[in-house]
Each structure stands twice: as C-alpha cells, then as structure tokens.
Specification:
Blueprint lengths: L2 H41 L1 E4 L10 E6 L5 H6 L6 H12 L14 E9 L4 E9 L4 E6 L8 E6 L14 H6 L9 E4 L4 E6 L22 E3 H11 L3 H9 L2 E3 L6 E6 L5 E8 L13 E7 L8 H5 L4 E2 L18 H12 L4 E2 L2 H10 L2 H4 L5 E9 L4 E6 L9 E5 L5 E3 L4
Parallel strand pairs: 2-5, 3-15, 9-10
Antiparallel strand pairs: 1-2, 3-4, 3-14, 4-16, 5-6, 6-7, 7-8, 8-11, 11-12, 12-13, 16-17, 17-18, 18-19
Helix pairs in contact: 5-6
Length: 417
C-alpha cells in the first residue's frame, strides 16, 4: 500500500469515527431530551382491531412515562382555549418541531354510582359517540401525583376515526392523550367522567360553551380539568376544591358537566349554570357559576334523587327550574331507565357485571335510533381500585373485555360473564 493510500485510509477512518461519535452524541442528546416520550411511544400497543361493520374503532393502550408536563401546564396558568392548550402540548412534547391537536365534540353518555353486595363502591360509565379509536391510557407521574387509568378518544387528539393509528408521527401525536381523558380512576379510588349538556340557544342546537372569566383565577379546559382531578384529588371533597380554584372554558361550542365519586361512597355532580337562568336564557357562557350537587342532601333535585344514596347522570342539567319542559332534557329517557334499574335494589348490585348489565340496557346500539354507538362501557371499582372495560358493546366477546388493577399494574383481557 502506498503512502498516499495509507493517508487516505487513515483520514477516512478518522472521518468515520468522528461521524460515529457525532451520531452517538446526537442520539444521546435526543434520548436525554425525549426519553419519556420515546418510552411512551414504544408502549403504544394495538389491543383490538377495528370492525367497521359493527362501528368498532380500534382499541390501543399506552403507558405514559414521566409527568407529561402537566405540573408545568397548571403552573403556567392553564389554558383558556384549545389553541393555547395545543400550543403548550406542541411546545413541551415536541419542542415545537410539530403541531399537535386536541378538540372536543358531542359526547352523549350515561353514568351512575352503585355499591356491590360485598360493599365495594362502583362508578359506571357509557361513552356514546361515533365509531372512533380509543386509547386506554396509564399514567404514574410521581411527585405527589396519583397514578391513573383513563379512556381517551383519539379523535380528540387529531387521529382519524376511519383507519387505525399508522406511522410514527401519528403515534407521537397520541402523546397528547393524557390531556384529553373522558373518564378514569386514580389509585386513591377517585373516579370522574365528563358528559355533554347541550346548554343554551335551543334554536342553535344548544351549543353555548361555558367561558368563565374571573380575573383572580387561572384557566382550565374541560378534559384538562378531569386530568387535574385524576392526578391530584384524594377524594370528592378535594376534587371539588380543586375545581373551584379555576375558570372553566368549554371550547368548540360545547358545554359539559361532570360526575365525581370516591371509595367512601360520596359522589357529586358538577354543573355550570347562570343564577336564576334557564336553558332558554342561558346564552352567555361567562355568566355561569359552578353548582355542586352531592349524593346526600340533594332533595332539591327531586324526590327520587333525595331518596337515593346513589347518583346518576346523562346529558341534561339536573338543577330544578332550568328547563321549562322535559322534551328539552337530552338523555332523560336513559336517566329514567337507570333510576328504574338501580332503585329496585336501592343502588345495590351483585357485582361489576351486574352494573355492566345496566350500562348494556342503555347502550346506543340497542337504545338509540341508529345515531352513533356506545364506544366503551366501564365499571370502576373504587374500593378495589380495579377496572372492568368493554369495547363497543361486545359484552359477550372475551377479546373485547379488559381488566386493570392498580395492585398488579396489569392490563389484560378477561373472560366474559
């Protein structure tokens, strides 16, 4: 080998070594910055494929690593509108390298609380919508925040409802899932759900968003309020106190109310209504104030509610005098059916499967008129800190039924009843 060739070979080796070293440095830097995001994306798993004939979207799971910057979100004053939330998520998760989205849409659902014959407290929920992909989202942020299980409609983070989640960029987009829970439970046995209320402007499809503007309070959006409850609340009272500290902003021209329950058997429905206002006059979302209705001492709502220890909710404001006629109460038929089923045993059910049977009764595929479907049905056992979750009303298909336990940390399919 000539001297020139030796020099060229040595130079090439040095160049390759430098390039390799740079790659190692870049990989180390990227992993150092995004190691939690890498771990979360790698855990994103398809649990059940879609079935378009039955209006079934795909079911995924994701174990979220780290604190997903929610402490920062609250410390920086929260968000008053979707664009602010989207900007925060994009800047934090991708460092501004890509846009991420969150949106809200019509949510027609049912929930109730019950107690089993053995004394376990339950929180039950149907999520009624259209065919969509969902993600069972597991978080354990540490730092004094609770671990949680929540259900996220991936449509709300910008994922298409017409196909499975495909490609790395779409999986990265799903990192926004912790900011958009629809229902969930934390390891303290606190559960919460969000439900549309169709408030105000009957001539405009009842679509006036709550938009509080107390200058002394920070701002928060609908799903991030639910995330706050799951992450920080030890019980119902603490959840209510947290909510009271914020201005609620329901974006996308929608309005919502919530139900919260804990392992002691206490529950509450949180609604935002104008003092003395009715559905026909409730056309200014900034005039609404928080009203909390607990499962005890709720005689003002009605005789059934006052006599019952359990609580139930669909898609209308429960405050007396808000509606001039029952026809304006969205989901009143499901509300009455749930009460009818629960009142037969004073809110006591044999077990989680018995509670699931009540959800089955008011599922959209059997109860509805072809408008949408029930995307998932879930029973949260607040005493045992466990979850029984069914996809798309496939109650008799063991491959569509999932169980989660905080004690084991396992998410697995289980046999049907």
């Amino acid at each position: 080998m000539t001297k020139t060739k030796k020099i060229l070979l040595r130079t090439l080796c040095i160049l390759l070594a430098v390039i390799f070293a740079l790659i190692i440095v870049l990989v180390s830097v990227f992993f150092g910055i995004w190691h939690n995001e890498f771990s979360s994306v790698s855990s994103f798993t398809l649990l059940r494929d879609r079935n378009d004939a039955h209006k079934d979207g795909a079911v995924y799971s994701m174990k979220v690593s780290g604190g997903f910057y929610f402490d920062d979100f609250l410390e920086e004053g929260g968000a008053k509108k979707d664009s602010e939330l989207i900007a925060f998520i994009s800047n934090k998760i991708t460092r501004g390298l890509m846009d991420m989205g969150i949106k809200e849409s019509d949510i027609g659902c049912s929930s109730f609380t019950a107690v089993t014959e053995s004394g376990d407290r339950l929180f039950a929920r149907n999520y009624d919508f259209d065919k969509t992909n969902v993600c069972l989202t597991l978080t354990n942020p540490g730092g004094g925040r609770h671990a949680s299980f929540s259900t996220v409609d991936l449509n709300y983070v910008g994922i298409s409802t017409e196909k499975n989640v495909e490609g790395l960029m779409n999986k990265i987009t799903c990192l926004a899932a912790p900011f958009a829970p629809l229902d969930g439970i934390n390891d303290a046995g606190v559960s919460c759900g969000i439900y549309m209320t169709y408030q105000g402007e009957p001539e405009n499809n009842n679509a006036v968003a709550t938009d509080q503007n107390d200058p002394n309070k920070p701002d928060i959006t609908s799903t991030t309020m639910l995330r706050m409850i799951l992450d920080y609340a030890d019980d119902v009272d603490e959840a209510v106190e947290l909510v009271k500290q914020y201005n609620l902003h329901d974006s996308a021209n929608t309005s919502f109310h919530y139900m919260i329950a804990d392992a002691t058997g206490k529950s509450a429905i949180l609604e935002w209504v104008p003092v003395g206002g009715t559905d026909e006059t409730d056309n200014d979302g900034s005039a609404r104030e928080l009203v909390v209705t607990y499962n005890t001492g709720d005689e003002k709502i009605g005789d059934h509610e006052g006599e019952s220890d359990f609580q139930w909710i669909t898609n209308f404001i429960i405050q007396p005098g808000y509606y001039t006629k029952d026809e304006d109460k969205a989901g009143l038929d499901r509300y009455d059916q749930i009460y009818s089923d629960l009142s037969k045993t004073d809110g006591v059910v044999k077990d989680e499967w018995a509670a699931m049977e009540i959800l089955k009764t008011v599922g959209r595929r059997s109860w509805g008129k072809g408008d949408g479907c029930t995307v998932h049905s879930v029973i949260y056992n607040l005493t045992q800190k466990t979850v029984l979750w069914v996809s798309n009303e496939n109650f008799d298909d063991s491959t569509a039924i999932y169980e989660y336990s905080f004690a084991t940390g396992e998410l697995k399919t289980v046999a049907g009843k």
